[in-house]
Amino acid sequence: MGPKVVIVGAVAAGPKAGSRLKRLDPSARVVMVDRDETISYGGCGIPYYVGGDVAEAEGLRSTSFHMIRDEAFFKGAKGIDVLAGWEAVAINRMARELELRELKTGRERRLAYDRLILATGASPVRPDIPGIGLEGVWPVADLHQAQGIKAAVSQGRVARAAVVGAGPTGLEMAEALADLWGVEVDIYETADRILPRFLDPEMARFAENHLREQEGIGLHLATPVEEILSGPEGRVRAVRAGDRERETDLVILAVGTRPQDSLARKAGLEVDEGGGIVVNEHLQTSDPEIYAAGDCVANRCLITGGRVRLASGSVANRQGRVAGTNAAAGRPRARFKGVVGSWIMKLFEVSAAGVGLTTERAREAGFDPVSALVVQADRAHFYPGQELMYLKLIADSKTRRVLGVQGFGPAGDALAARIDAVAAALPSQPTVEEISNLELAYAPPFSSAMDILNATANTVENVLEGRLESLSPEEFSRLLKEAKAGSEGGAVFLDVRGLANVRPYLESLADRGWRHLPQESLAERLDEVPRGKKLVLICNAGARSYEAQVTLKAAGFKDTVNLSGGVAAVKRWGEPIIPENEEG
Amino acid sequence: MGPKVVIVGAVAAGPKAGSRLKRLDPSARVVMVDRDETISYGGCGIPYYVGGDVAEAEGLRSTSFHMIRDEAFFKGAKGIDVLAGWEAVAINRMARELELRELKTGRERRLAYDRLILATGASPVRPDIPGIGLEGVWPVADLHQAQGIKAAVSQGRVARAAVVGAGPTGLEMAEALADLWGVEVDIYETADRILPRFLDPEMARFAENHLREQEGIGLHLATPVEEILSGPEGRVRAVRAGDRERETDLVILAVGTRPQDSLARKAGLEVDEGGGIVVNEHLQTSDPEIYAAGDCVANRCLITGGRVRLASGSVANRQGRVAGTNAAAGRPRARFKGVVGSWIMKLFEVSAAGVGLTTERAREAGFDPVSALVVQADRAHFYPGQELMYLKLIADSKTRRVLGVQGFGPAGDALAARIDAVAAALPSQPTVEEISNLELAYAPPFSSAMDILNATANTVENVLEGRLESLSPEEFSRLLKEAKAGSEGGAVFLDVRGLANVRPYLESLADRGWRHLPQESLAERLDEVPRGKKLVLICNAGARSYEAQVTLKAAGFKDTVNLSGGVAAVKRWGEPIIPENEEG
After folding, report:
1. Chain A residue numbers touching B444 (CB-CB < 8 A)
2. Does residue A337 lie in a domain region?
3. Beta-strand relationship, A492-495 and A369-377
4. Does the model's pTM come out above 0.90?
């Protein structure tokens, strides 16, 4: 007989670990335990089930060949015994026994193990808000809750919904409710932007503008929910936030998750101070016969070397496989070295994605981040259907190491291609030069000869070399606002595009210092450039204005700044350059 | 005054090198020379111009902000002098002079240089076919030829066209002619498959079937064109190949390109025996004041360490930038370490892509390649709109290094994401395990929790470990053909899917050894499995049949093979499993 292996948790990492283990050692006796009676489902698919892309909850529990992954499936197809509805209460490491209790009956039992795999997942953080227990307030942590939400919505009981938290789950749920069901959605977020752990401020703002203006989502940033208010019969009636009450029929709680590490902690296994079970690169816990995989793990960050928590069905699956391999062998064999934190999400008609550190997190980790934002077509600029992609690359100024990249644009798969390339390179700690030279597959229907990813790395290099001094869309908007009509002392906004582009800006903003000199005649018309003033250089996307900056610097103009991402970025930033009452 | 820099070649690498150089050192005096009077165009866009996606030839010569990149543009916007219509005849390295001749007038002149950049490109191989000089026979090497082809087609003079060569250019031209213009296209290829340097046979065949069956392209493989036949007035009338004549109104020559290295060779610079100028990682030739960039270079292959020739507008642009950087500095500074050979192409409604070595090229380079073909949804299998992607990963059995990947599927951007990730990892010589653990951005609209790329690496690992013995679609089709009706001694085709899938196969093929045992009940029904016979294990995509193989091996069945990619791969392979007259 093979080893006795017990797995705690049967959603993603657990089933993968068990299945892999049985394939490697069919003689192993595997028991998988879960509190829930519903096991092995694609939790990441919950928003798509609620939003109607996946018609039935069974869709999230099915294999690609349409079998429901229930207890009978695991028994027959995988040779795994499942104890569903049983909670793991304690690990007796000396005796190598797991203590279990059946939730329905309170019955207890013990399971002996040779190896134990912890795949206990993460649990949603319950925010400390009065009224959180009212009917109609839902976390999004399991399939039962998803079914509850969908039932309420599909029965027409929800006209307005409040989402607490603008992380990935909150935003995906907002889309699910608004897009198919036409629910009026308000999102409340304590931070000053959406996806605060994932996006830099200007990238977040591009997405925020899309959500507000194109999709009609109410976004309340820096606005914590203070209270959930009760209507008749203990049902939610309204949400109070920022000293205002807004009626609502449903509240979704999506303020993040926390690794479920209490079982490990009680058993004396090493747990990270920020939460999560500590494992080595073979996914062994501090007890070498106990493995951990999935959302319950404190992962090694391959960029900072520190530990990060990460809830991802994809990481869970890959870790499950590694834990299963090693538990089958009974010795360290397969490795999972760590994570780089790649992510992507669909936001209605656009997508946002990234990998690695944001500027803020890079700074927290002790790096000195510099970055560049590039706006460029997502395929050859002459190819029909091309759309603008927005890409920001962050690097450390001392080592020139690339720390992260973030992107935004309508073509999600094309955005994934750039993010995935950086994700694949990040474990080997690439320099900016290596991303400049990254050899993405090229043909006009898919990319540019100088792809936006290469171009963004080139731009960061120019920043590092001190050749490019740039101005963010936010700084630009502030500067333009400060430019009083007729103020002669202020900055000059030098627009280097063609006249057709520039004309409306000249008509409206000449008295605030907007000037025109096309880049291609700049070198010959240097005497027309005002001396002794700050020159803000402007074009559509930031490339031609960079050429202008080079020319002006060589001619001795010292105070020049290049508008990063050009007019395209300012438009996404959402402050009209030409005052709105003058347009049209 | 800055250095005098002369650039030979003004299509892709040359203009990029010059522009970069002038940005770094505006005091440099840069002259760019080209034989052609039309310069700086996106040659890779030619098929899209001919096919109508790009309406005017100017589209390929324009910047993203709609300026034509002509001599005036380079003078004004870039500070570069252009000598168009001048051929570089010789390099006098002692005197540091370039000898030029104007093609129209025969006039000669010399240009002194401090540094020289060779960006002479590649020229189309002219196949040795009688009749190649006839009117209506076109190579696709420059914009003039593209305009000639488009004129003929758009004036309705072309009902049938013959394309010589089934490489990327030939296939893209075939699409251009067939798709918009409705031209009947025949492609002739000497090799036994399309894209022979890029795709393994079964991957090529998937694409061939699409071209033949869905798009009506005539594909004549292993069929060299023997003669191009003349009609009245010296115009092409027909093509003779494989002892058959086919009428045609137009012949496109697309049998590959050869680096233009004769100028370098004459000047005594080191040139690779297979063609192409030899450079170090700073793109310096054997004369450190002479750089080379683009299609004229013999590139270092980062996988084999050997030299490869590669015609790519993307590599040309990135090399141009590196050469420009170093020529500006006058010393080695920026690096271009080599290439991994990533590529992608649109083929009507599907795309094919890859990076690295094919099985054949891996063997030539001295590796011992093993591989796996995986067929899986290109996003979560429960997400609407998902389609099957076909991915093949090749690794070296001794070192477990990944050598290459090839893919095929309808979602080109999504395919690019997988190829680009491997392309980004390849320079650091990843093992199969590292691709198994690659952290692609995950969300159900874009990928699976266990992405097809991870799954393909997992499958290669199983092959390497001897756990998975697989049968290609080709071998399967042969075996099934050999299975005579009623022959009791042959292989057993054990279909482990659900009965609904299997029923038509059982009805038609039971007497050839087709049997049904669903995977999930296999372990309990082992006594029903025939002993002493070769067992061919079959499911939809190859995963469930692998589970069956594991179970059968553990039960002592020695001769089992798993149908790689399952029924999905055989369908793409194009041999009907159920004889066609029995279907329907």
Report:
1. 42, 44-45, 48
2. no
3. unpaired
4. yes
